[in-house]
UniProtKB/TrEMBL annotation:
The keyword Transcription regulation does not apply. It comes from Actinomadura yumaensis. GO terms for molecular function: hydrolase activity. Its EC number is 3.-.-.-. Pfam families: Beta-lactamase. SUPFAM superfamilies: beta-lactamase/transpeptidase-like. PANTHER family: D-ALANYL-D-ALANINE CARBOXYPEPTIDASE, D-ALANYL-D-ALANINE-CARBOXYPEPTIDASE/ENDOPEPTIDASE AMPH. Keywords: Hydrolase, Signal. This is Serine hydrolase domain-containing protein. PROSITE patterns: TAT.
Amino acid sequence: MSQKNVRRPLRRAGLAAGAAMLMVASAWPAAADPAPTARIRGGNVQKAMEDLAKAHGVVGSVGGAYVDGKPIGVGSAGSRLLGGKGGKIPANSRFRIGSQTKEMVATVVLQLVGEGRLGVDDKLADLLPEVAENDLVERAGEITVRQMIRHTSGIPDWYAGKPNPDGSEGEDPSFDVFDFTTHYRPLDLVKWSRARPRTGEPGEKWSYSNTNYTLLGMVVERVTGHDLAAELHGRLFGPLGMTKTYLPLKPPEGIKGPHGHGYYPDANGRPRDVDRFNASIAGAAGGVVSTAHDVSAYKRAFTQGKLLPPELQRILTDRPPGDRRPLDRTRGVCGDDLYIMGGNGPGFLAMTFYSEDGRRQFAVSATLSGKDTSGAGQAMGKAMETVFCPSS
């Protein structure tokens, strides 16, 4: 997930997918004049999905585009299973959204702040005493809710890759991707990060860490007395009409209904089906299952400021300290700035493109046959152009 969620206009198809549950870049909702009709007409979503399915490493694709909450096209291509097997993926099928989950979890946390049940400067050690008492998070008495939301806590990432022989971080996750049955508690994941070095002083700089959101999920459950899945449903999924969206928390819970399967290479390089990816690992850091319709509904509401008051939303959207990555300040596609949030994990890549005024969304997912997401990422940028920049 990128920075603390800053605005990043996209250049024409200049999209590169990142690593390990990828990035989120969320636009601060701004009041905007209605876009001219010519700028919101839709291209051929089905063609965009067919082109995406031809990209290197893509097994299947599914996507949908929306303007002012109304569909302008849905589509799917490729196959449900590797090698052209399993039939077609339904255009309205569910898919994993990866780290797009994080913004949803942060929204729930900030709603609790708005209700006075939590403070953004509350300390982790006070909210979850066990992480300090059992020395699971170094400097837990100094780390705040704000810092965890913005990835400035310095807490190392439990997802970080297994080290290579030279000591550098490898591309494979630190856990067994093919362990589909072991039930891990969130604290188990936090323990995985403890042996890794901190990435900075609390509040000093941005450094992406899934551990932040594993802990924030625990905070939500501690404050509310409900599991995270119930809070997400009660506060977001239900009110926004996201009827096909849910957060699985325990294996073997997975994706409901017909959908595309993703694959990941084993030690011998053989692609193995990872559709049953362990739900207890992803959780608050990247476990939500949704659809193009539903994730677009969420992003529309968030961008238009319907979920949080401005002062709390800015905690998610303002650039954090120490984030030195350059921002693309040029005009975006089709004469308008478009932004992106996305997520990936073993066997999939999902992205949601959206306009700053919240009127337009294009949500897309690709199931993959290997580790490399770059081909799918570039193809998603081209798919977005096909949808939002149809040739005249």
